[in-house]
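// run 5 | inverse folding | seed 20
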């Protein structure tokens, strides 16, 4: 067993997910159902790459059929199958 990391590829993803509850301004009972009042979870954090940008953590197992998640590869540089690595 090696302590070295195996080779890998870092990719960006394009995601469409709806709806997403935005609580950056806090809970507002005039806009939100009371069931959301006790919902607290740090799944939103500031971007280190884009000043003023935000990152949202989503778990793929909660995506539904109307959501989409795909690798962003406009130059088609990633392998398409195992044969692409040969």
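// decoded
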């Amino acid at each position: 067993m090696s302590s070295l990391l195996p080779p890998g590829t870092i990719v960006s993803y394009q995601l469409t997910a709806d709806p997403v509850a935005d609580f950056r301004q806090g809970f507002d009972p005039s806009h939100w159902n009371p069931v959301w009042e006790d919902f607290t979870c740090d799944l939103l954090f500031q971007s280190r790459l884009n000043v003023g940008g935000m990152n949202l953590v989503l778990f793929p197992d909660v995506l539904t059929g109307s959501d989409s998640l795909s690798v962003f590869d406009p130059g088609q540089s990633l392998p398409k199958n195992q044969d692409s690595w040969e």
